[in-house]
Amino acid sequence: MNAIFSLLLVLALVVIATLGAGAAQMHTIFAYCIPGTAFIIFLVGFACKIIAWAKRPVPFRIPTTGGQQKSLDWIPQNKWDNPSTGPQTFMRMVLEVLAFRSLFRNTKVVLHHTDGKNPIVGYVSAKWLWGFALIFHYSFFIIVVRHMRLMMNPVPFLVQMVDFGDSIMQIYTPTVYITDALILVGVGFLLARRFFDAKVRYISLVNDYFPLFLILAIACSGIYMRYVAKVDIMAIKDVVMGLTTFNFKVPTGVDTSFFVHLFLVSTLLVYIPFSKLMHMGGVFLSPTRNVPNDTRINHYENVWNNPAVKPHSYAAYEDDFREPMFEAGLPLEKNPEEAA
Amino acid sequence: MAKIIKPEEMLKSISYTPPAEGWMDLPLDTSPGRWAYPAKQDKVEYLMHEMPGIFANPRQWNPADVDWKLPANWKEIVVNGFRERLDKYRSLKVFMDICVRCGACADKCHFFIGSGDPRNMPVLRAELMRSIYRGEFTLAGKILGKLTGARVLEEDVLKEWFIYFYQCTECRRCSLYCPYGIDTAEVTMMARELLHLCGININWILEPVSNCNRTGNHLGIQPHAFKDIVEFMLDDIETITGKRVKCPLNEKGHEILFITPSGDVFADPGIYTFMGYLMLFDAIGLDFTMSTYASEGGNFGLFTHADAMKSINGKMYAEANRLGCKWILGGECGHMWRVVNQYMDTMNGNLQGPQMKTPVNPITGTVFENAKQTKMVHIAEFTADLIKHNKLKLDKSRNSNVIATWHDSCNTARGMGMFEEPRYVLKSVVDNFHEMPEGTIREQTFCCAGGSGLNTDEIMDIRMRGGLPRGNALKHVVDKHGVNTMACVCAIDRATLIPLADYWAPGVNITGLHELVANALILDGEEERTMNLRQEPLPGFEEE
Questions:
Q1: Enclosing domain of residue A331
Q2: pLDDT of residue A249
C-alpha cells in the first residue's frame, strides 16, 4: 500500500514534467524556475536543519562503546571503536561515514527448532545490507560528481578523472558508466528488501519507498537520456551553465526527457531537507558516535545543568538517623546531646 | 515468582513474522503480567517533595483498568515536555529526524528475539515516539497523517509507551548496529521522563529512588542495620578463613571511599562478592572506608530522570569530601558504571573537594590516568592492576571445580568498554574458562533482561523472553564445555541471571568476579580453608 502510493506519486511527477515541458512547452519554467527554486530550498533547508541540530546541546557524552576502553597501560585499547581522544574519534567517524562501520557488524538472528534437540538461537553474519548500501551510496556520489562537468567550464581535472574512471569499461556507444548499472543494483536491492523482508516491510512507510522510487526514476530517466534518446549533451550543458551562471537562454534542441530528469532531481532536492534523507548530515552529529569516551578523563559542562539539583545532604541524613547511628556506634558529626 | 509457561512452550510461541495489520492498529495488551506494579502513592509524594518537577500525580491506579486517572491536561504536559526535551538534547532531535528504517536494529533486541512482538523491534519502539513527533511537531505529519507514519497523541499512546518503554532495558545493543548510532536507550529515557510527568511510573524503580535518597541505598537499609549486615559478613569471613577482617564505616581520614551497589550487601549471591571485596582489601592492607550515607553504587535515578540521577549520584562526591577521601573505588555494578563513566563528572564534577586527587593504586603505584577527572576507579581495573603486579597470593586450585564463563554486562560493555580487565582477573583465579559464542559477548553482549529497573517478578514472562538470547548462549557452553558458573560484574545481573539460568540453562551458578577472586586469595595469617565463600566444601574437602 505504502509502496504503491509512493510509486504513483513518482509516476505523477513524471507525468507533470512530461506534460509541462513536453506538451505545454513550458521550457523556461522547467529549465530554470523550478530547478533554481529547488536548489535554493535545498541549500537553505539543509543549512537550517544542520544549524538547528548543531545549536542543540549535547549535555552528556554518550558514545556507544564498541570495543575495549582506555584503562591500564598493558591492555590494548580499541581506539577506533572506543575512542578516547579527538583524532581517534575522527577515525571512528571516518570509518562510520565512509565505510559504514556499524552496518558492517550486522547479523541476522535465526531460531532453529529441531525435534528432540535443544532449540538454538543463532546469529549469522549478514553483510548484504552493508555491501549494497555501499554500492548504492558510492554510485550516487560518483554520479553527482560526474554531473559537475555539466556545471563547470572548464571541467576540473578531478571531475574528468571520475568520469574517465567510471567509463573505463569502454563498452557500447555512448560509453556505459559503471555507476549507472550499480546504482540500479543498489536501489533495486534496497527496494527488494522492503518488499520481501517481512520485518522491513512491516516498518516501511511512504517516507521510505518514495525516495527510493524517486531515485530509481531519476536514474532511469538519466539512463534513458544517455543511451536511448541520446540527447544533445552540449545543449543540456548550455541550460545547466545558464542556471549556474544566471545567464538564462531559451533552451533549444533539448529532449523532453531532460526536463523530466531535471524535475525529478528538483523534487529530490526539495525533499531532502524535510525527510529522512537528512541522515547524510545527521550521521555527523550523532552523539553516540562523534564524541570520545572520555568523561572520566576530561571535564565537560552541560549547558543547561541545574545547580539547584543537589544531593540529599549528609546533615539531613544524620538528623534522620542520629539515634540509631549513635546506638550502633557509628561515627557522628553531632552526637544526640549536641544536636538536642 | 509468577507462574509462567515452560521454556519449550515459550520457544514455540516465538515467530519473527510480523502480523498482517500495521502496528498502529495492533491491540494493546495491558493485562497483568505485561507491566510492573505502579509506584505507591506515598513514594511518589515523597519524591515530589524531595525532587521537584520530576514526578507527578500521586494516586492509586491500576494499568489493567481503562481509566489511568491521568491529569486533565495530560496532553499539554506531554507535548510541552516533548518539545522541551527536543530542545535540550541533540540526541533526541537527531534520532527523531534521521532514522531511515533500514531495519538493521530490528532483530538485535533481546525482547524482540524472545517475543517476536513487532513493537519490540528497536526501530518500532522509537517509532512509538517518532510517530507522535511527526504528528505533533512536523507539518507533513500533520497534513499527511498515517501515510507518513504520523499519529496524534491519545491516551492509548501513553498506555502503549508505558508497556513498551518498560520493555526496553536501555542496554544499547541496537545502537551498536545502527548506521547512525540511534540509541533507543536515549529515546526510552525521554519517554519515561514524559510518562513520569503524568504520574505513569513503576514502583520497582521509584521505591529504590526514594529509599536511596533517604537511607543512602536502594534497599532502604538504615545505617545501624547496614552495620549489622556488615558484621554478619565479617563473621562469615572469620568462619571461612579464621581471620577477622575490617570494614570501616563512615570513618574520616581514610585514603579511599569504597562504594558498591547495595544489592551486594543484601542478597545472595551478591553478599559473597561483598565478602570478596573485604578480603581483598585486607590482603593488600588498603586504607579505605565505606559509608552508610553513600551506601549505594547503583543509581535508579538513571531510569527516571536526568535530575534524579544527578541528585542521587551527588552523594558520592559529597561523602568523599566529608570523609576527606582522595578518591573513590567503585564495586561491581552495571548501570552504576554507565553513570560514573558517562554522566558523573559532567553532572557533579563541581562537587569534588580539593582533597580529591587522581587515583593512584597505593600498592602498585599505578596512576589511573583514565580516571583522573572523575577520581573513581572500577574494582576490576584495580584488581587487574594488582594481579598484573603480582601483589596477590592466589591459589587457583580452590576454584578448580569451577568451569566459568563470562557475562559482559550491557552497561560496562556498551557504556564503558570494560572487557579485558575482568577477563584478566577471572583467568587469573580460575583455570577453566570458556567464552560464550561470538555475537553474544563483549560489545555484542545480551542483556539479562532485568536492567533499567525491570528486575521485578511480576513481569517474569517478559523477563524470561528477554533472557532467551543470554540463556541460549549460556546453554550452549553448558552443553559444550560443562560450564557450571557464570561470572559477571553487575549487581542486577547477580539477581536476574539466577532465574534466567534456572529457566534456560539449569544448573549454572551466578557469581560476582570478586567472589571467585576471594576464593583463590590467600590472606596473611588465615587458617587452611576447607570451604568457599558460600560455605560449600572446597575441592578435596568434600565429605564422603
A1: 312-340
A2: 80
